[in-house]
Amino acid sequence: MAEAAAGAPRSVTPRSRLRGVTSLLPTLPFFAYVTVFLLIPTLVVVIGAFAGNDGGVSLDSVKALGNEVILDAFGRSIALSAMSALIGAVLGALLAYALTTAKPGGVLRRTVTAAAGVLAQFGGVTLAFAFLATIGLSGFVTVWLQDTFGFNLYENGVWLFELPGLTLIYTYFQIPLMVIVFLPALDGLRPQWREATENLGGTTWQYWTRVAGPLLAPAFLGSTLLLFANAFSAYATAAALVSQGSPLVPLQIRGALTSEVVLGQQNLGKAMALGMVVVVALVMTLYALLQRRTSKWLG
């Protein structure tokens, strides 16, 4: 009788059902925020990308993505995102590893992680001005190097406003972001694994190449993809620095929305935005798969 009672399906009372609905109420603001600022804008972009000038369905805007200028903008955006993500991932991982050697909960670790949390969000016009004031044409470092050592930062051209300069500036907020997202994976490495390697006669090189490295590889690649998506969608910093031309996709979208040059192609900006959504969706899908693999080993 007792087994039969245990195997019987439990009846859902109105009170338990009401409790379940009530527990979901705190999540309503989150879902409302996601709906208003993510789902609806994405839907508008998708519909607009396939809408013609007469309001009907058209592929003209999507076909216009094959324009050489737009393809170049996508290529430069991907190159900029990849370079800044790779540099930020390597330097950020080294800094995160250095933090794991510090005292857990100590002042150094708490200070660096707090600073990383702030600097990862430091971008836009403020960051552009900081670099202009530091290594701009009249920045104090530029002037000091010229007056003290006779070294001209821009002897071979003003690279600060081009791809190398943007890569340097983007790396500024990519490194602290890497520290934030990669540090938990490093903390997940158990000291027993290293002790077991040493007890078996393994060297430090063998530990990192055969134990820690393979375990951390999915987390490192996933974090790098997150940095790529972060740089690919950045707009304000490049917009503040680049005043002529639109070398990146976000700046091309701004030009499509504000310029009269593309009159009659009012949905071209939405088509380019759809292209960005597709790229970011692919990257974030890979990131989610790698995160699942990371959580499997590192808990």
The helix fraction, in percent, is over 70%
- What is the H/E order? HHHHHHHHHHHHHH
| Nearest-integer average pLDDT | 86
Q: How many beta-strand runs?
A: 0
CATH topology: MetI-like fold
Looking at this protein, list some descriptive labels:
mainly alpha, 299 residues
Question: What do you see in this structure?
Answer:
With 299 residues, the protein is mainly alpha-helical. The chain is built from 14 helices and no strands. The longest helix is centred in the N-terminal third of the chain and has 33 residues, at 68-100. The model has no long low-confidence stretch (mean pLDDT 86).
Short summary:
The protein is 74% helix and 0% strand. By secondary structure, the protein is an all-alpha fold.
How is the topology of this model organized?
Layout: H1 2-7, H2 14-24, H3 28-49, H4 60-63, H5 68-100, H6 107-119, H7 125-135, H8 140-149, H9 163-187, H10 191-199, H11 204-232, H12 236-241, H13 249-258, H14 268-298
Helix pairs in contact: 3-14, 5-9, 5-11, 6-9, 9-11, 10-11, 11-14, 13-14
